[in-house]
Design brief:
Layout: H1 8-11, E1 42-45, E2 48-57, H2 65-79, E3 83-89, H3 93-105, E4 112-116, H4 120-126, H5 132-138, H6 142-145, H7 150-153, E5 157-158, E6 161-162, E7 165-177, H8 178-183, H9 193-203, H10 221-231, H11 249-263, H12 277-283, E8 289-293, H13 297-303, E9 308-311, E10 321-330, H14 335-348, H15 351-361, H16 374-382, H17 388-392, E11 396-397, H18 405-420, H19 426-441
Parallel strand pairs: 2-3, 2-4, 10-11
Antiparallel strand pairs: 1-2, 4-10, 5-6, 7-8, 7-9, 7-10
Helix pairs in contact: 10-11, 10-18, 18-19
Length: about 450
């Protein structure tokens, strides 16, 4: 179901009119592009040589994001007659990564793809991607690589090279119902873990018709848990791609608090909460606060019939959140295609396009210059909630990324779920997880 040809300007929508866009998750649906990949590296158009690129992209949020990507690509094609990008919607992040890996092994990878920033080491270990800084140096575009927010580059660089660039990036933020806060006599969002518990207890009804808090705990549970470890002074991962810190005492303490929220303090439902359930419960008034992706902002503002507040995640020792979301990767193909792919990546992340993408979705615009555009200034004047995730970047740390990244993430997610459901204590769950991760990563040298 392709969309009609249109420029990006013609299809750009204000945040106030964007239809439902939910947060990150694997259940999003969107129409796939029916155009097939264009064989070969070039063709002719208008008498000139055309470089054909394939662009695989996932949809990590509900709503018409696939159409927006297609419109964005069409605007690029309209303004670059010597490059034709064919965009292919490829499902969620997991299915897109699987497709890309399979295609690379078969000798037909996409030229560009949006994949999780944490997929870097897997793709690098496969030899599938090229360093973006090498291409940028050849094109005289090194200043462009310096333009991104440093927090996003923590998951974009390794071994002294930049292997991908930020595109649709996010952090977790606290969404809160200002109307319910006012009724409960709470004047501001919680700043600390203690305040989070106290406020959530005031906002929880004994009959379960209203919860003070909901934090998604199914799916990418490691990501929802990771802020607590960072806020307690110890991230679960450092600079080395072959080492994790799951059983560090501060991480264990953080998981204990994570588990206590539903089980001891009884401020959120017991068991596992689905990623897509939390924003629905929030916008319908069933949950007074939720932790969710900044990429859910547009949907929540559209759906909620009350005053929505957005705040930093509450701190223990410090504020903190992992970054999240997708980067642009350029795959090893031909010099001609790689050069054209760089042009496409630069265009997608330009200040004007990054600002528009952010305003329409809630993803964070990936460069400070995007926030200097008049369009973004006007948007934030009307929608100050859109600045919170950007401001929280000063406290952001890297998302869990290692060799064998998806397996290591699943190990931590499983440990968190075992603790949340009472199968293991937080200490035992993380001890077991550390042993599994160590065994998996032992074949990689520092």
């Amino acid at each position: 179901m392709g969309i009609k040809r249109a420029t990006w300007r013609a299809v750009a929508l204000s945040a106030a009119t964007v239809v439902a866009l939910a947060g990150c998750g694997g259940g999003a649906t969107a129409p796939a592009n029916q155009a097939g990949n264009t064989a070969g590296g070039g063709g002719t158009q208008g008498g000139g040589t055309v470089t054909n690129l394939t662009f695989d992209f996932p949809v990590a949020v509900s709503g018409p994001i696939a159409q927006k990507v297609q419109a964005l690509v069409q605007a690029f094609n309209d303004s670059h007659p010597n490059i034709k990008v064919t965009a292919n919607f490829t499902g969620d992040y997991t299915s897109t990564m699987t497709k890309v890996q399979t295609a690379f092994k078969a000798g037909s990878p996409p030229d560009v793809a949006v994949l999780l920033s944490t997929d870097l080491f897997t793709l690098k270990d496969m030899g599938a991607i090229v360093p973006v800084d090498d291409l940028a140096s050849q094109a005289g575009a090194t200043d462009w690589l310096q333009s991104f927010y440093p927090a996003f580059m923590k998951n974009s660089q390794a071994d002294g090279k930049t292997w991908s660039v930020p595109f649709q990036r996010s952090t977790l933020v606290l969404y809160y119902n200002k109307d319910l806060f006012q009724k409960a006599g709470i004047s501001q969002p919680p700043q600390t873990w203690d305040e989070l518990v106290a406020d959530a207890q005031k906002l929880t009804k004994p009959d379960g018709s209203q919860w003070g808090l909901e934090i998604p705990t199914s799916g990418l549970t490691y990501w929802e848990f990771q802020p607590f470890a960072i806020e307690n002074g110890k991230n679960v991962v450092g600079d080395a791609a072959n080492k994790v810190y799951f059983d560090d005492p501060k991480v264990v303490e953080a998981l204990q608090f994570f588990v206590d929220l539903p089980n001891k303090y009884k401020v959120e439902p017991k068991g596992l909460i689905n990623w897509a359930t939390a924003p629905t419960d929030f916008t319908t008034g069933k949950a007074a606060m939720i932790y969710h992706s900044s990429g859910s902002l547009a949907n929540i503002l559209q759906q909620a019939k009350f005053n929505v507040g957005v705040a930093f995640l509450p701190k223990k020792e410090q504020f903190g959140t992992p970054t999240g979301g997708g980067n642009l990767y350029i795959f090893k193909t031909t010099p001609e295609k790689e050069k054209a792919a760089l042009t496409f990546a630069q265009w997608l992340t330009s200040p004007d396009n990054a600002a528009k993408w952010s305003m329409e979705t809630g993803y964070i615009a990936v460069t400070p210059k995007a926030y200097d555009t008049q369009a973004m200034k006007d948007y934030l004047a009307k929608t100050p909630q859109g600045a919170v995730a950007r401001d929280q970047l000063q406290y952001a740390d890297k998302e869990l990324a290692t060799h064998e990244g998806q397996q290591v993430q699943q190990i931590l997610s499983t440990a968190c779920q075992e603790a949340l459901t009472g199968k293991k204590t937080p200490e035992q769950a993380l001890k077991d997880a550390q042993q599994k991760a160590d065994q998996l990563l032992s074949k990689y040298s520092s």
